[in-house]
TrEMBL record:
Domain tRNA-specific 2-thiouridylase MnmA-like C-terminal: residue ranges: 279-353
Name under which the protein is recorded: tRNA-specific 2-thiouridylase MnmA
Documented EC number(s): 2.8.1.13
UniProt key word Repeat: no
Annotated GO biological process: tRNA wobble position uridine thiolation
Cellular compartment(s): Cytoplasm
Residues given in the record as ATP binding sites: 6-13, 32, 125
InterPro entries per UniProt: MnmA-like, MnmA-like_C, MnmA-like_central, MnmA-like_central_sf, Rossmann-like_a/b/a_fold
Keywords: ATP-binding, Cytoplasm, Disulfide bond, Nucleotide-binding, RNA-binding, Transferase, tRNA processing, tRNA-binding
Taxonomic placement: Bacteria, Bacillati, Actinomycetota, Actinomycetes, Mycobacteriales
Every tRNA-specific 2-thiouridylase MnmA-like central domain range: 202-267
Species name: Nocardia colli
NCBIfam families referenced in this protein's UniProt entry, alphabetically: PRK00143.1 (NF001138), trmU (TIGR00420)
Length: 374
């Protein structure tokens, strides 16, 4: 096959491209320029798309002996990832920009251009596995990225390749060193590449501006003022601007955000418990919407936030009823559904969280829930 290797400049994508070459594919490397001013992106261990990374990707392609190009996706990245990120926080949501980048840039804009140029598939260094079109968790659970790939539909998965998902990260580094790739010991990227300072709140404040509001307790009593709901996320404990803990001495957490009124509600850790999750924009990786309830494991964060559950498609969305509560579940996050089997967890589908139900919701297995699902 003729495949396009998306080379970020890191060790994973370099080894993925190398393995594609070993498999006999005709491989062309491409690095995505995601900023009109690359110097504003993070560098070193805190970046993924900087000028430094472009150079590392080019040198890796030279070692592999494959053609290499840099494609400009700065406008698409700004519109589909950065602007979406800012708008979501302004609406009181907590988005995952890496998830949106995969959906809109790497496996939509990039893949579409690749297909138009005659490529059969796109190769990336994501830690996930594809088995006859079925997306599964990576062998290395600590590096697994299936959560941020669960937004891909069946068509997108059919033209994707994840060559490193069957190998633990330490072995990938060893392989890179054996191949003479200079990125073998390059640190992993962290945080958000388009926020150079690492200060997300300051970045959002500069984009959104001051929108005053109040921090209130569960009874609606005002506790403090704030400069915008974009400075908060569900489950947040620090930086709330409060004079001290609750009257019982326990810490307070953000339990609710109303972007219209600018109100941020705080409460106890118990108030964070969620038993039901509603989501919109459901994506079923098989391409077929399942009928009836689905036994699954629901995950609401890239690493952690998992519980056994029963999910069901509802119109264009889905509802997930948890068997045990989760905390820190916010609108704008993705809920990803997995089905464990003997080959490893497979991804059933995903949705963007639009609402949650707390302690008043009936957990799966209760009399009320059993009646509701019969």
């Amino acid at each position: 096959m003729r495949v396009l290797a998306a080379m970020s400049g890191g060790v994973d994508s370099a080894v993925a491209a190398a393995r594609a070459v070993d498999a006999g594919h005709e491989v062309v490397g491409v690095h995505l320029a995601l900023s009109a001013s690359p110097g504003t992106l993070r560098t070193g261990s805190r970046g993924c798309c900087s000028k430094e990374d472009a150079g590392d990707a080019r040198r890796a392609a030279d070692v592999l002996g494959i053609p290499f190009y840099v494609w400009d996706f700065a406008d698409r990245f700004k519109e589909d990832v950065i602007d979406d990120f800012v708008a979501a926080y302004a609406a009181g949501e907590t988005p995952n920009p890496c998830l949106r980048c995969n959906e809109k840039i790497k496996f939509s804009a990039l893949a579409d251009r690749a297909l138009a140029l005659g490529f059969d598939a796109v190769v990336t260094g994501h830690y996930a596995r594809l088995d006859d079109g079925v997306l599964r968790r990576a062998v290395d659970a600590d590096k697994d990225q299936s959560y941020v790939l669960a937004v891909l539909n069946a068509q997108q998965l059919s033209r994707a390749m994840f060559p490193v998902g069957d190998t633990p990260k330490p072995q990938i580094r060893e392989e890179a060193a054996e191949r003479g790739l200079a990125v073998a010991n390059k640190p992993d990227s962290h945080d958000i590449c388009f926020i150079p300072s690492g200060d997300t709140q300051a970045f959002l404040g500069a984009k959104i501006g001051i929108r005053p509001g109040a921090v209130v307790d569960a009874d609606g009593q005002k506790l403090a003022d704030h400069e915008g709901v974009h400075g908060f996320t569900i489950g947040q404990r620090k930086g709330l601007g409060l004079p001290g803990p609750a009257a019982d001495g326990k810490p307070r957490y953000v339990t609710g955000i109303d972007p219209d009124s600018g109100t941020v509600r705080v409460g106890s850790v118990e108030d964070l418990q969620v038993w039901t999750v509603e989501a919109e924009r459901a994506i079923w990786t098989s391409g077929v919407t399942p009928e009836g309830p689905i036994e699954c494991v629901a995950q609401v964060r890239a690493h952690g936030g998992m519980a056994s559950a029963v999910a069901e498609a509802v119109g264009d969305g889905l509802i997930v009823r948890l068997r045990e509560p989760l905390t820190g579940v916010a609108r704008g996050q993705a809920v990803v559904l997995y089905r464990p089997d003997e080959l490893g967890d497979l991804v059933i589908g995903s949705g963007t969280i639009s609402g949650t139900g707390g302690s008043g919701s009936a957990p799966v297995g209760s009399d009320a829930e059993s009646a509701a699902t019969r």
